[in-house]
Amino acid sequence: MFAVSSKIRTLSDFQARILNAAQETNKTPSSAEIIATLRYFQCTLLSFLKELPPNSQIDFVRRYSTDSNRASLCPNLNYSGLYYAINNLLDVFHLIPTAQKEIAEAILETLKALIPFLDRDSLDQLPVLLASQLGVFPAELHKSIVHVVADCVLPFSLIPDSITRISIPAILMLIFQHTPDPTLHTWIIEAAMAQTEGIYGDVIAVLAKGTSPSRVTAANLLFHYWPFSNPHVLHRKLIQYKVHAWTPIACQYTACAEKGPSVKKCFDPSICSATCTDTAPPIFVCRKCSESIQSEGKVQMDTLLQPMSSGCNATTCQNKSCSSSSRIAVASCFSPDCVKHHNYVPIRVCAECLDRDHSSSSEGENHLAHCGSGVAWGSEMEWEMIEAIVKLLRETSHNLGGGESEGKRPKWLRQLEGGQQAGKEVDKMSDERRMLSRFGIWLMAALCPPVPEANERALHYVMEAVFEWFATTALLPNDNMGSSLEQLKTEFVSDWLNLAIRNHYDVFVDVLSPAAVREVEDRPRVEEMKEALGKLLSLTPYDIVSLETWSRVMPKWLQCIYDNSEEEHLRELKIVLSKIFEPDLCPLPFDTPKVFEFITRELVSCDFERMSCALKWIHQLSRMEIRVPLGMLLTDLAECFKLLPTMDIPKMEEGIDLDDDDVCTHVVVIDILVMQFRLNEISTHEMASTAEKLFSAMALLLRTPMQVGAHVCHSSDMDEFADCNPCQQAAFFYQMVLNLVSSVSPKQEMLIETREEDVADLAEITSPSTSIPSQVLSPYAPNQPHQPSPSLLAPPGSSSMVIQRASEVEEGDEYVGILPTEEIESAMAETTTLTDRDVGRETCHVLMSTLVQGKTGSTPMLADTSPSTSRGGGVENECFWETSVGRFKFSFDSIPAQLRFIYALYKNLDGERDPDVELFILQTLKILCLHCEAMTNSRREHRGFLIWMHEHIIVGEVASLLLIHACTFPSGEEMLWRIVPKHFTNQDWRTRFDAVGRSTVFFHLARPSAVKANKVVQYALAHLFFHLTTSTVDPNPAVAQRALSSLRALPSGTLRLLTTCVESQFDACIIDRPLLIHAMRALATQVPEEPTLTFDFFIQLFETLVLEAQLAAQSEDSLFVQVVDSDDEEGSTVKDLSRTDPMSEIYQRKVTKAKRAIENASTARSISKTLAGKGMKHQLFFVSHDLPKSISLSLRLSLNIPSCHSLTLSSPVPYHVHSNR
C-alpha cells in the first residue's frame, strides 16, 4: 500500500516537473519513466482483479453497482488519487516532447484498468475526460479512445439514475467535433443507443447547444437514424458528410492470426491476463477465438451488437414479417429479443411493427427502442427542438456571412483556391455547414408546424431565424447549393409561413415589425435595423408579404427610422429601402400605388397628426433619395391639401429653426417635392401633366396659412427678417416653389403682344350686336352726348338691368362665351326690370340683356334658385364673380390649375412682410404668366375669371413686368387706364405718394423689347408718364418731391423709351397732344441734362401735324391751307416736310399713320377723356390736413386765418401752382 501511494505521488510530481521544464531542464521526467509508472499501476490493478473471489469477478468488472459490499472486495487504496494524478498529467500532455503516442496508450490502458475501482463521482467524469482527449492525443489513437468510451466506460457506468447519462450530449459533441472519421460517429451513437434510451433528445441537444462542426454530424445522424416520411428528405442528396457504418474492434486475442472483427467480449480477469498481455477486462475476440476459449473451459461471454447498415435500405422496415403499406422506418430496436433474430444487428421497424411488437405489453415493455418525438409542441423537448432548429438555420447565416462573403462566391472558385485564403487551413466541411439550414427547415416543417395550439413565443423565435435565413440566402449564386436552398423555400418554408399567417398572424406581423429588433451590446442599432429590413426584403418575392401585412408593418418601420436614425445612418439604410420602394427594384407582388397606399391612407385621414407622420415618412424617404412616383405623390398631396383647412393644426413653438424637425407643414411638403422632382426623371410628354398636378396641389396648399408662430422681425432685439422664424420658413417655402415652377416651365419667355381677337371678344361681351363702336375702347361713343362711361365711372353692381329679349338655352359654365350651336327654342318675354339682387335668380336663361346706363352684353345668365348661392363678388367657389362688364358664374375649382395657383399666390402676397418672400412670389407669378402663358391660354375659355383677376388683383397690386403683360388684355388695359387717374388724382396725398412710387418701379422694370413692339403698352406707359410728370407740381410737397426725385433717377434708356411711348400716344390720340407736349416740357425742365426735346423730336411731331392737316383739307373745308407744289399742277398730293418720294415705303407709313390718327380720333384711348369730370382738382385746391403741419401753419398765417379755424372741404382755398416750382 505504501508503494502504491508513493507511485501516485511520483505520478503527480510529473505534472509539476513538466510545467517547470523550461527552468529546470534536468528534472524533466523522461518518457520511459512516465510509461513505467503507468505500467506499474496497470499491472497492480490487474492483479487486484485476479485476486477477487471467483464468483464476484465478472459482476465486479461488468457493471457498476451501488452495493455496499463492493468496496470490501478490493484493497483499500487511494484510487481517486490515482485518477486525479492521471487527470493532472493529461493537462500537461501537450507539453511532453517525445513518445506521446506510447504515453497516451499507457494512459488509456491504465484508465481502462482503473474503471472498476473508481467511485461514483470519478466514474461519471471519466467519459467526458476521455472524449476531451480526442483533440489532444495523436489521431492514431482516436479509435482507441472511442473504443474505451463506447465499449468499456458507458456499458459499465450507465445504470439507472446515473449521472453519466447527463454527460452523453457532451460526449457526443466532443467526438463529433474532434473526430473527422464518420465511422467513429456511428460507433459512439450506436453504443449509446444500446445502453440507454433518449439518445434522440441527446442528438437534438447537440444541435441546440453544440458547436458548428458537431452539428454537421449530429444533423446527418439524426436524419439517418430517425428518418422522416417526406420523400424530399428521405432521398436527400449528400454533400460532403456521408454516414459510414462503424467497424468492430479487431480481435484482441494474442494467438489470433486473422485479427478479424470481434463478436464477443469476455470479463474474466484470468482469461484476459492469459490471452492478452496485461490487458484489463473486458477483452474483445472474434468468433473463432471465442469458440476456442469457450472450448477450453466454461467461460461467460457477451455477444456484441454489430454495426447498423448505412445503405439505401436503412430507411425501410427490416422486420421480415412486416405487412405495412408504409415501410418507412420510424424506430430502431436494440433489445436482445429483436437483434438476435437479425444477426445481432439493431433492427429498424416501421410504425405498425413498432406498435405491434413494442407496445406496452409484457412482451415488449423491456425493449430498448429509439424513436423520434413527433410534433414538439407540449413535449419535454419543445424548447430543445426550437433551439436546434434556430441554430441550424443560423449556421447558414453565420457561414455565408463570414469574412469577405466567402460563402457567396461560386463553389468552383472556392475549390480552385483550395480552401486556402489569408493563411486559413482547408475547411473540408465548409459546404456542409452552409447547407445545415436544410435540416433545420425539415425539422421545422415536420415537428414544429404552426398549428393554432403552438407556443407563440417559440413561433416568434423560429420566425426570426427563418426570416434571417431568407435574407442570408437571398443572394446565393445559382449553383447546386443555392438551388437546393432555394428549392426549400418553395417546397417547405412558404407553406409553413402561410399556415403561420393564418393561425398566428399577429406573431408574424410582430416579427416583421421594428419592435422585434433587439439592441445588441457593442453594435449600432442601425445595423440591427438594416438586417431586419433585409429580412423583410427577402420575403417579398415569395408572395408571403400581403398588402395587409405591408400596410401594418411599413408605417412602424418608417416611424422607427424617423425616430432613431441620425443623418449619417440614412446612407446605410438607403440601400435596403431603395430595394423595397424603388419601382424598378421592388419585388412586392402588387403595383407601385399599392406599395404607397398606407401613406396615402394616412394623408387623407382628416387627422393632422397622422397626416404629419405620413409627410415625415415621405420626407425621410426623399432624404434617402428613394423615388416616389411623382404623379401619384402630387395626386395624394392634392387630396390631402383639400382636407387641410378642416384639420386642427397646432401652432408651432417659438424658436423653431429650419434645421429642426418640427417645421411647418408647408416647408416639409415643398422640401419633399423639390427632392422628388430631382429624383424623378420627367419625360417630355409627361411634363405638361406633371406641371398641371403640381400647380393644382400648390394652389390647394396655399389656401391654408402657414402655422409658423408670431413674427419677431420688428423686434429691436432681432436682426429683422434674418432672425424671424416665420420669415425664414416663408422665404424657404416660396423660394422652393419658385425653383419647382421653374423646373416644369418653358425656359423661353413669351413675346408680350396684343391679340386682335381679345379686343373683339371683349367688344362682343360689352356691346350689343349693332354697329355702335366698343365703349371699352373709348369712354365716349360717337354721335352720343358727352357723358361718363359706366364701365369707368359707375360703381360695379349699382345699375339695374332691363331684359328686352330672352331665349332658353342650355346651361353653361360662364355668362360669357360663344353661344351654343344646337337649335335654340326661343320665347318672347315682357320687358322686365331686374335689380342687382335679382341677377342669378331668374327662371329663364337670358340670351341677350341690356344694362341700364349703357352697360350691355350678350351674357348667358344661368338660372340658379339655390338659396345657398352667394352674392359677394370674387370669393372662392362662389357662384357669381363681380366685374365691371357684368357677373360671371363659374366654380373656382373649374378654372385651370395655373389660374388657381396664380390666384393663391396673389392672395398670399399681401400677408408677407419679408421683401425676399415678395420677390420669390412675384418671380413665380412671372414664370406662370410669361413662360407658361397661363393667362394667355385662358383668355377665351376662362376670360370671366381673367377679367376679375385684372380688375381686383393684378393691375391694382403689382408693379412689374406682369403689369405690362396684363395691359395686353383688354380687361387689363381697361383697368390700368381706370386706376391710374384714380390714384394720381385722389384727394388723399398718401394715395398719390404711393402711386408715384409704383409708377417709378414700373418704369424701372419696363423692358424695351416688351414695349417697343406693343402699341397698347406704349399708350399705357404714356398715360402713366403724363401723371408722373404732372405730380412734380403736386400741391403736397412730399408727393412733388418724390415725383421729382423719381423722374431724375430714371435711367437714360428708360427716358428714351418713355419718349417713344409719348410719341406713340401723340400719333394715336389727337386731343392728348397738348397734354403730352406739356409733359415733355416738364420733363425737359426738371431733367435738363437729358436731351428729350431734340430737333428730331420736333421735326417728327410737326411732320405728323402737316400730314394730318393736308389729309383733313382734302376731305373737308379746313382752316389749314393746302400745300401746293409748283411741280404738281393739281396740288392734290400730300407732301411731308422731308419731301419724301410718294412711292417709297417710308412715305406710305407716314401717310397711313396720319390717316389712322384722324380715323380713330374719337375712339382712341385718351388721357384727356379719363380726366373728364375730375380734371386735376387736387392741384387747384387743397385742405389743411393734406399738408404737413408746418406748411399748414405758414399758409394760415399768410392768409390771415385765425388759428382756431380749420380748413375743410366745404371751404376750399384757391392756390395757384406755378409751373416753374
TrEMBL record:
Residues 789-798 have a biased composition (Low complexity). Residues 767-777 have a biased composition (Polar residues). Residues 767-798 are annotated as: Disordered. InterPro entries: ARM-type_fold (IPR016024), UNC79 (IPR024855). It holds the Pfam family UNC-79. It comes from the Eukaryota. This is Uncharacterized protein. It comes from Pristionchus entomophagus.
